[in-house]
Structure prediction request, 348 residues.
Amino acid sequence: MMRSDKTAMSSHAKKLAPGEWLVGVEIGGTKLQLGLGRDTGDLKAIRRVGVDPAGGARGILEQIAFELDQLIHGANLDFAAVAAVGVGFGGPVDRLGGTVRNSYQIEGWTQFDLRSWFQGRFHGRRGQPPPVVLLNDADAAALGEARWGCGKGCSPLVYVTVGSGVGGGLVIDGALCPGSIQGPGAMELGHLRIARANNQELEAVASGWALASRAKARWHEAGASTLRDLVDGDVESVTGEIVGIAAGLGDPVCREVVEQAVDAMVEALTAVVVLIGPQRIILGGGVSLMEEDLWIKPIEQGLRREVPAMFRDTIDLVRPKLGDHVVLHGAIAAAHDVWEQVASSYRT
Prediction:
């Protein structure tokens, strides 16, 4: 039987006091988002900035410290109003220890104690630091969609994010199922090796960075003329998003790159369907914003073609309801759950 994470399970029996708020944070490879909310699924305030990977973890922490002040004071609140903090991090984390295991994109995060760092932001501003919970960003997104998005009431629910990397989250009966507490997590779909892609990991074929890299490698081919026109001949300006746009405009090279990514996604999700039997699969992330005819539709068609016959009628593949704020919503949901746990412990 799969183990669900009790820290993500909530009866919603306890409510925040009127003056209490929850902070959600998304730390990604290209963006940083902070949000202020409660236990209703609404966001009172949002801060979003880009991040410079060259600045490493130190630079991002400086941004977080500044944006956290702006978020709270901009809402006419003080730090004492924050009941709990949830963080969705773009990489594997140690949920029990509150530390980042490592980042595949940004230097300086390995074994960083992010929980203690956040609690330190409240030193001298609040009697006791608030509880802080740390999640992988894909797990946070899965929890957000299960709580307030198009995954509500669906079990098992699988969330797959395809952006700068590829990740996933699994929710069963409304609770996150992140794998062994000692392990790096469950549904790490990006590390699944794909037979039809020469046994490469899914992330090396289907992520936004992979799309850009594979298109750049074919930059001088005659079929890449539309791609070259879109970036005015500057190969370094090619991104996964631009590859998707060029594919939509009929660029043969970019279409082939996207089709290879689709084939890899079909193989990976076929395994997910057979092993987990999800009621619904939510396909999010920046790459999944590509035209439906290029991405979601061919993936769904491929799944129906390749899964065993007994699973074909169960395929339900959708885009997320919560859009670009999905990780923030999940981080706030996790913050609420850890606050609820702490509040319960004080009452017993």
Summary: The chain has two domains: 6-141+324-347, 153-320. The chain has ten helices and 15 strands. Residues 6-12 have pLDDT under 50 and may be disordered. The domain at 153-320 is CATH 3.30.420.40 (Nucleotidyltransferase; domain 5).
